[in-house]
Amino acid sequence: MIGAKLFAPAEDQNAFTDILFNALLGFAFMFSIAFMLIRPEIIQGKVNPKAEFMITAAWPDGHEDDIDLIVEDGEGNLVWFDARESGLMHLDRDDRGFLGDSITVAGRTINNPLNQETVTLRGIAAGEYVVNLLHYKAQGSGTVPVKVKVEKLNPQVSVIFAGTTQLNGAGDEQTSIRFRLDAAGNVVEMATRDKLLIRAESFEAKRNSDAGDSQ
Length: 215
Ligand SMILES: [Ca+2]
Ligand SMILES: [Ca+2]
Known about the structure:
single chain, alpha+beta, Lipoxygenase-1, 6-stranded antiparallel sheet, 5-stranded antiparallel sheet, 3 helices, 13 strands, elongated, binds calcium ion
C-alpha cells in the first residue's frame, strides 16, 4: 500500500493512513473521469455551428454603394435584407456600403471597410437555388464588381462556385449563379441565365418608402 511505504509502521496509525490515502486516490480518480466526460461537450459546442452551404457576396472595401445579396430556394422562399430568414436560409446582415460601418468610441472613430453579405443554408433542401445581386443604392455612376462565392461546408469545405458580376447602377439586378441540389446535398446542375427575383416596380416602391422613412 502507498500509505505503508510513505509512513513507518506505527501500528494504530497504519489502518487510518491507508483509508485516507485510498479515499484521496478515489476522489482523484473520480474527478479525472468526470473531467474527461465533460470536456468533449465543451469543445464540440464551440466548433460545430450547423450550416451546410455558405454564399458570400463581397464588393470593394470602403465602397459607398449598397449592394444586396438575394437567394431563392427551390420552394420559392426568398432571403434578402427585407426577409433575413426564410426556409432554411439566413442572411447575416444587410451591409449598406459605407453607411453604418464606422463607430465612435471614446471620441475616436473606428472604420470597418468591409463590404460583404453572407447567406447560410442551415440544412439541405433539394431544388434549384438562385443567387442574385441587387445594386440597391449607388453614390456614383461607375460599375461595381461583386465577387460571389458558394461553398459547401460538409464534410469538408469546398468551393463550388466563385465569380465576379459587374453591377451597373441603382436598380440593376443580375443573377450570379444558379445551382441545383439533390436530397443528399450534391450539386447536380449549375447555370447562369438571369431570373429576376425582385421586380423593378416593387424595388422602386421599397426604395422610395425607405427614403421617406429616413427623412
Ligand atoms: Ca446591402
Ligand atoms: Ca460595409
